[in-house]
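Notebook, p. 212. Picked up where the previous page left off. The plan for this session was modest: take the two constructs that came back from the sequencing core last week, fold each one, and keep the raw output in the notebook itself so nobody has to go hunting through shared drives later. Recording the first one now, exactly as returned: residue sequence, then the structure token string.
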Amino acid sequence: MILGIPAAQLVQVLVVPIAATFAAGGMVTLVMMIILGIVGLVARTLDWWFRTFSFDGEVLRVDHGVLSRNRRSLDVARIQQVEVQRGALMRVFGLAAIRVETAGSASEPEVDLRVVPEPDAFALRAAVRASQQRMGDHPVTQDGTEGPPAATRVLTVPMKHVVISSVTGARLLVLPAVIGGAFQFIGQQVGNFANRVTNYLIEQGIAVDPSELTGPDWRLVAMGAAGILVLSVIAAIVVGVLRDGRFRIDRDGEDLHVSRGLISTRESVVPLRRVQLVEVNRNWLRRLLGYATVRIRSAGGSTGGDGRVTVPLLPEQDVDDLLSELLPNVPGIPELHAHPTAARRRALFRWWRPALFTIAVVWLAPELLPFLDHPVVERAQWIVLALLPINTVLALVEYRQLAHGLTELVVASRRGALSISTSIAPVVKVQAVTNRRSPFQRRLGLTTLVAHVAGPGAVIEVLDAGRDAARSLHQRLSAHAASPTPVVPDRDRQVDDTAAAGPAGPSGRSEASTA
């Protein structure tokens, strides 16, 4: 009842007492926290008492509610993923949380059992997998018996790569602000006390007048900035190692088992048939080091709220090997075709627009607001002019990276400047195709194509493709989206011609058509 409280819910409950601390005395805050704690404990107790679950091999049922009773039933065929989470305290007490997802549960799990005994959690996940395997086809093993093949290790992320991922990712950009804010808060509290001490010493004639004091010691400022940077790096490494340490992916039959975490562990099962989209991301620093991050999007949402499993870091030469495991019969990133030179003008316009807007605001601000006429503003006016050449370089880099590709099995698109992203999706997962053409794109003969893939927020955007290439891509992807079975557009005419002249097989179809 206590360990099952989600961290986000606990923070929401504590917002009011923390706010009351600054608005009332300590006793009022203490009484409020006690009342909220008692009410929360009673509610959790009643919820635990009336919550039951069962699984009969076909349907997972969960009954919950105190005054209003609710029953949720999930057919095993509709279950996409079953994830087992074990926090640090849960592991101490031998407990675990179960998250059961279906294709329609993008933001919240269909079933979230917090918490159950750890053996029950793994037993439920094994029972669901066994039932799903019984409903499907079982491959024949080498000894002639039917059953799923033995589990094989697909990927193991070394601790060195986890550390590199922590110090080269976006998390490192957030921590300095957090640490700086914490230092500012502490400094304000310490500063008030120091001011009172200084005033007392001045009154006693022990200290000098503050007006005689010099300005800040820039050496200390530099040391403080360096200290914040070091603490940010250390904090990023600690958070990354605790979250992604011992990251590994195993393949058991047609399922991927993903596990990670040192203290709090997280284990997910991603069916290969539910993989909707694979994204290969490389920011500028990781490109220099030869690494990439791979995100796997699936139909369910337990892997990350939006159906994502993120491989922290992977050498670029190993990306194709991982893709061949995630997307069967796909050897790696397909051949990509560059976009026409007209797309360069669009890229320059996209990057020049914010730069010119910023320059105009900084240069016109002193004219519209005279009180901003200051030497600092004058220096800023000349500094912002550097945005124009910088954004020009980024626009040219983005243009060189624009590319897309289509094979019989997958569609792929690449874009980006500072961070290059390559998205690959099976063509059978494409649900709809959209073409967008602004007046400027029509004038340049360009089209932006968006392929909507099954899954929460999964799309592939082909930015500024040539008009003829976009039209052909639209037609071929629309054929896949409209057909319940895979379509091979390149071979349609060849198959039809061969079928007209080839010998018919036992089923009445030609041998070429059957093949």
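Okay, moving on. Second construct, recorded in the same format:
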Amino acid sequence: MTVGIELASMAFVPAQPLNSSGQAFSDDDLTIAVLSRMTVPVWVFDIDRSVILWANASAVAMWRADTLAELQARDFTTGTSVTVAKKLKQYQTDFIRSDATISEVWTHYPKGVPSTIHVTYRGITLADGRTAMLCEGGGEVKETPDKIRSAEALVHTSVMITLYDSGGSVLYLNPAAKTMAVEGAIAIDSHFVRPADLFRLRQQLATRREAHFVAEVLTSAGVRWHEIMARYCWDPVTGAEACLFSEVDVTEIKQAEAQALHDARHDALTGLPNRTYVQTVFAERIRDLLAEAREVALLFIDLDRFKTVNDSLGHTRGDQLLMEVARRLTDMVTGRGEVARLGGDEFLVMLETFRGESGLDDFVHSLQDRLRQPVILGEHDLRLTSSVGISVGPVDGCDVATLMRHADTALHESKRAGKNRRTLFLPKLGHAAESRLRMEIDLRRDFEDRKLRLFYQPRVCVRTGRITGAEVLLRWPHSSGWISPDIFIPLAEDSGMIVELGAWVLREAAIQQMAWKHRGFPVRLSVNVSARQLSDGSFLSVATDAISMVDADPADIELEITERLMLGGEDCVVDTLRRLKTIGYRISVDDFGTGYSNLAELHGFPIDCLKIDRSFVANLNEHGPLTNLIINMCHLMKFHMVAEGVETSEQLAWLADRNCHEYQGFLFSPAIASDQFETMLAKDAIHPLAHG
């Protein structure tokens, strides 16, 4: 098959076809003779294979080659930048699509020597049907270095540069802009996805003669986010007013921002909106509904005795249960409102459609029935009830905070009345503060009546499987049922009662430790200490008295503080810890990994033991490398270590392989009463331990 080549106004058919292998035209061909004798450099470049197929003598000299064969043997792949390669592919597309002629100032580097020339490109069809590029070189450009470099930068930059005339039509596209341009889009009007962004552009240009904003635009890669900077200038060719655009693709940044915003507003476990979402999106939606003279209901939902599931089956099963509850709530509410998880086993439903009070009550009744249906977790068939508190706007409030407070008050009334109930907020129920006050009164009364109890969760040696000690945990058997520490400990913190409670726990722990020691069970007990206690001026005296009154060895008592407290930096807290260490107490950091610190930051503190947070142990597939790093650093820094929340034999084996010292969790035992723990100690029959 022969190939017709058009150069200027002369058409010819070569005696031998030009093919992709670089086979040259025969020397006796008139056309080749004419081309060869031209003083203008002419060459044919195979874009797909990055080789020169043919060049006349002027082009061979321009490329600083000794012979045509030497030039044809050069591989231009290594010397071609990614940007130039993309540009040539774009040119190839333009040749095929519209038989384009392209002229540009081009810098090439024959044998490493830069040379800037004018060059004109046309498409040429090879014998195998592919499109190559016929190149015609002009004179060398004698410009200043700055001008040459600026032209090169315009070619290589990933910033998309476009020049529009005053009517919005395209005058110039640099290679980056040409690559991203939509086929046939030759005007600025077709660039933006939203007309409002085009209006914003024109408004900013009209008032400031420049514009800067981020918008969604149409590109050859689809809809993308671009940061756009535009300003009026002059067309250097015609002298007419023009507008210069520079655009940077920020789609990945926008997507990352959107993902970060989503993560900040949604619960990691269930994927439901969280409290932050409620305080923003729910709040806005409630304002809109009330502005339209519509009603809105908030349902505060709490799962009854959920903590029992966690304590008996472990947190993994508890999480599975929460995800199933989230799914059921979403199925029930979709099309009528939204569901959020506020934390723990607390959910919030915003209901926009309920057809009056009777319709609302019917819906909540159906919702509770749905939640009461069996949940299969492994071999366990669970049936959970729920308590619900309800508030309705605008009757019970006109903002999300007030409606949530009143729904929470109604929820407490449901739980107080025996759980598995739904309660509509009424003014006679009072405010949520009154409910907290009642609980505070109950807590103080039960504390003074010595109804609070201490439970003990065993700490076990990973190597030997024997009990080495226990974490002391405070429990409250309230008249309405066991109250979760997650509820009454923050209440005690806020009220200041934690100072008295903490002192009592420490004294009781010292008494119990000595009692077991005298019975032949020399276990070490660890006691949680709050920031409020450490900041109290009497705590050092309390700590000293606790061991002196029973002649206990302070090394047998370990004081657990949170990682966040350790890194808070309060001088009084750090000083108190140092003095406690001087007395002889051991200091451990509880829940390590949740405070976003690192071990190096803790090195200067008086720490003996580090407790690895249960979240790391629960998900070793994801957090294994980080957990392994923590263990290795503990060995290096000579910290004793305890892994919390161990629930499976696989987790224990993983910890044993890495020589973790101790563990605690449901695999061995939940927290149990003192008599149960003593029975366990007797069965374990441990020997006196040299504590590490």
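Notes on construct two before I forget. The CA atoms of residues 593 and 613 lie 6 Å apart.
Flagging for discussion at group meeting.
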